[in-house]
């Protein structure tokens, strides 16, 4: 075999090693960067449905993809949940018919950067036209109007819910 | 408006199959290039070798698809490639020895045989270890097994001494390094022990100079581990093995308690034995001299190995001499302890860095599995096994390149040696099982919240 072919093969081999490394890194790209932040300013239907693309989320959201259909029940008067104290002060969430998960885990709807909050700290959800707050077995507890709760209790507009250093309350916003 | 979507692992079995094929082609190609470089013709057994490697890779792929469908898709391709590269380099060193007659070294046949045994054991782990948490039941059994294995070379009659360290046993002509098996046993033991004791060990203690110190009564376990490492050091006169076991314990303690003080305490506790070894043990003293000043005329002949290794690295340069074109046979133990120098000579700096990246990715996958897994035992086990691989690579490559003194550890999956290869394949099997547990979708859900959370469209967050 000619010298030139051999040199080409040798270089090709080192190149193949690096291609292997790069391919592995590309395979891992998603995993290396962990969570992705999706900006939802554009109405991109593919992105809208990404949270539902989990392994068990086959039946994607029927209710809630259209914000106008979120509030059909006139009994529910609260339309927004606002953060009144803590690092996220000023944040507001539009209430839908779906539960809101609060905690430090990136899966949560409201992701707290708060050392005193648990990964999955509390859940705010609607039951029979009434908003409830439920403690999910957090370490430091959830306080409603200064009282530590167990299980789920009603969450009335104006009541203060304290999670770690964060305080949230419900607001009657413009419809 | 922004929502945060956390990453959900996909099984990616097809990716794994393609990567495995890539690894087999590259690894067998290395073997062919070695033959071309040494004797200008393809090795005679290339066909058999290639088919054998492909069949074993296929078997691994099938077993992974069957038993661990969510396992990490890159662990096995990385391991297969490293193993095949090692076999090619052992063959290169062997052929060079045949050509030039400076030394003798075993051919690659033995390593291939051990690789087959290793792959079969890895498949066995995947088949019979259905749930890694089952290993926790054997916490204390593995402690006893590990201790017995580690002390076995001291038994007169079966223990044998090589290069100043008594870490081998030989039965009926076959030698084995039981410390390799002992490190798996100890990783299981430390994980099982620490997961039940970590709360006590992480309790608040006095704060000195900005670091939390543990309570005096919590020093027991680390003292026992330290005493054990000392016994290995004094009676087997092997600093490398001693460092590996003590380091494994300290790092797993750190992972379990998340307190930096344990690392500091561990490093301080290992200083006296290191000083003792450096001053009292002949072969360790030689190695330290060779680390600091190998090229002076006084030390040149006693540091032949490390000097020849350095000349090998220099001969390799940036792009290397080419597979089968270098002279790794000049270096003593070029197929085992100094295989990294052989690689750096034949593949050059470019190839050597690719090799280090392969290890880096492997260790990263182990630590990623540790992060993703939901139970503390699995986290500790994956973290500990990943650390063992990382420590071995650091100690060996650091020793060859004169970053730290040489110590007797082996480069995982690459170096010639049956016991090391087989045990590392078992570790690979356990890591695949752990990564499957870490990436399985059921493990990522919280009871009672799973279905509604996943199907929920994220409400809008306005900042």
SSE blueprint:
The complex is a heterodimer of chains A (175) and B (463).
Chain A: H1 3-27, H2 29-33, E1 36-39, H3 45-48, E2 80-85, E3 92-94, E4 100-103, E5 110-111, E6 122-127, E7 130-135, E8 142-144, E9 147-148, E10 152-154, E11 161-163, E12 166-171
Parallel strand pairs in A: 4-5
Antiparallel strand pairs in A: 2-3, 2-12, 4-6, 6-7, 7-10, 8-9, 8-11, 11-12
Chain B: E1 2-5, H1 13-39, H2 46-67, H3 75-100, H4 108-128, H5 139-151, E2 159-162, E3 165-171, E4 174-176, H6 178-201, E5 207-208, E6 211-212, H7 220-236, H8 239-257, H9 260-280, H10 282-292, H11 304-316, H12 339-372, H13 376-400, H14 418-439, H15 450-455, E7 461-462
Summarize the structure in words.
The complex is a heterodimer of chains A (175) and B (463). Chain A has helices at 3-27, 29-33, 45-48; strands at residues 36-39, 80-85, 92-94, 100-103, 110-111, 122-127, 130-135, 142-144, 147-148, 152-154, 161-163, 166-171. By secondary structure, chain A is α+β, with helices and mostly antiparallel strands. Chain A is rod-shaped. The relative contact order of chain A is 0.13. Chain A has a 6-stranded antiparallel β-sheet, with no helix packed on it. A 5-stranded mixed β-sheet of chain A has the order 5-4-6-7-10, with no helix packed on it. Mean pLDDT of chain A is 74; it is low at 42-76. Chain A starts with a helix and ends with a strand. Chain B is mainly alpha-helical. Chain B has one domain. In chain B, 65% of the residues lie in helices and 5% in strands. Chain B contains 15 helices and 7 strands. Chain B has a 3-stranded antiparallel β-sheet with strand order 2-3-4, with no helix packed on it. A two-stranded antiparallel ribbon of chain B has the order 5-6. The longest helix of chain B is centred in the last third of the chain and has 34 residues, at 339-372. The termini of chain B are close together. Mean pLDDT of chain B is 85; it is low at 443-463. At the A-B interface, helix 1, helix 2, strand 1, strand 3 and strand 5 of A face strand 1, helix 1, helix 3, helix 12 and helix 15 of B. Strand 1 (36-39) of chain A pairs antiparallel with strand 1 of chain B, so a sheet runs across the interface.
């Amino acid at each position: 075999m000619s010298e030139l072919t051999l040199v080409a093969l040798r270089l090709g081999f080192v190149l193949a090693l690096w291609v292997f490394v790069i391919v592995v890194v590309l395979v891992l790209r998603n995993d290396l960067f962990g969570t992705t932040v999706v900006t939802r300013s554009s109405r991109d239907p593919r992105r809208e449905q990404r949270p539902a693309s989990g392994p068990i989320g086959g039946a994607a959201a029927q209710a809630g993809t259209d914000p106008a259909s979120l509030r059909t029940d006139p009994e529910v008067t609260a339309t927004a949940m606002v953060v009144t104290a803590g690092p996220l002060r000023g944040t507001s969430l539009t209430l839908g018919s779906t539960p809101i998960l609060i905690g430090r885990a990136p899966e949560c709807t409201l992701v707290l950067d708060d050392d005193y909050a648990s990964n999955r700290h509390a859940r705010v959800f609607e039951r029979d036209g009434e908003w409830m707050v439920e403690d999910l077995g957090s370490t430091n507890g959830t306080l409603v109007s200064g009282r530590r709760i167990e299980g789920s209790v009603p969450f009335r507009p104006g009541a203060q819910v304290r999670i770690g250093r964060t305080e949230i309350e419900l607001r009657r916003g413009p419809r | 408006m922004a929502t945060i979507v956390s990453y959900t692992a996909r099984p990616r079995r097809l990716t794994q199959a393609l990567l495995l094929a890539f690894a087999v082609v590259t690894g067998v190609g290395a073997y062919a290039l070695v033959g071309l470089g040494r004797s200008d013709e393809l090795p005679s057994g290339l066909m058999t070798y290639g088919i054998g490697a492909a069949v074993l890779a296929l078997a691994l792929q099938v077993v992974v698809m069957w038993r661990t469908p969510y396992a990490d898709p890159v662990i096995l391709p990385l391991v297969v490639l490293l193993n095949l590269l090692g076999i090619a380099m052992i063959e290169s060193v062997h052929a060079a020895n045949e050509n030039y007659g400076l030394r003798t070294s075993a051919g690659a046949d033995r390593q291939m045989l051990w690789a087959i045994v290793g792959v079969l054991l890895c498949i066995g782990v995947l088949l019979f270890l259905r749930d890694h948490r089952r290993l926790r039941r054997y916490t204390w059994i593995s402690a006893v097994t590990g201790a017995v294995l580690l002390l076995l070379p001291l038994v007169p009659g079966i223990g044998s001494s090589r290069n100043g360290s008594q870490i081998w046993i030989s039965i009926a002509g076959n030698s084995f390094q039981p410390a390799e098996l002992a490190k798996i046993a100890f990783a299981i033991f430390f994980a099982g022990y620490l997961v039940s004791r970590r709360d006590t060990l992480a309790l608040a203690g006095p704060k000195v100079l900005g670091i939390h110190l543990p309570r005096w009564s919590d020093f027991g376990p680390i003292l026992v581990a330290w005493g054990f490492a000392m016994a290995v050091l004094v009676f087997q006169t092997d600093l490398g093995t001693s460092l590996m076991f003590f380091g494994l314990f300290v790092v797993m303690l750190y992972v379990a308690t998340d307190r930096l003080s344990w690392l500091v305490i561990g490093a301080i506790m290992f200083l006296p034995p290191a000083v003792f070894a450096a001053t009292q043990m002949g072969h360790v003293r030689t190695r330290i001299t060779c680390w600091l000043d190998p090229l002076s005329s006084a030390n040149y002949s006693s540091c032949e190995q490390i000097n020849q290794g350095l000349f090998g690295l220099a001969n390799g340069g940036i792009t290397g001499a080419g597979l089968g074109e270098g002279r790794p046979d000049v270096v003593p133990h070029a197929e085992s302890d100094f295989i990294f120098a052989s690689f750096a000579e034949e593949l050059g700096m470019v190839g050597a860095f690719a090799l280090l990246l392969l290890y880096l990715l492997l260790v990263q996958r182990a630590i990623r599995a540790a992060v993703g897994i939901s139970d503390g035992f699995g986290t500790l086990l994956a973290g500990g096994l990943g650390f063992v691989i990382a420590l071995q690579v650091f100690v060996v490559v650091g020793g060859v390149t004169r970053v730290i003194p040489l110590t007797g550890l082996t480069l995982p999956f690459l170096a010639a040696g049956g016991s090391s290869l087989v045990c590392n394949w078992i570790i690979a099997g356990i890591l695949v099982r752990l990564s499957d547990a870490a990436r399985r979708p059921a493990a990522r859900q919280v009871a009672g919240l799973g279905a509604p959370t996943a199907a929920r469209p994220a409400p809008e967050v306005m900042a």
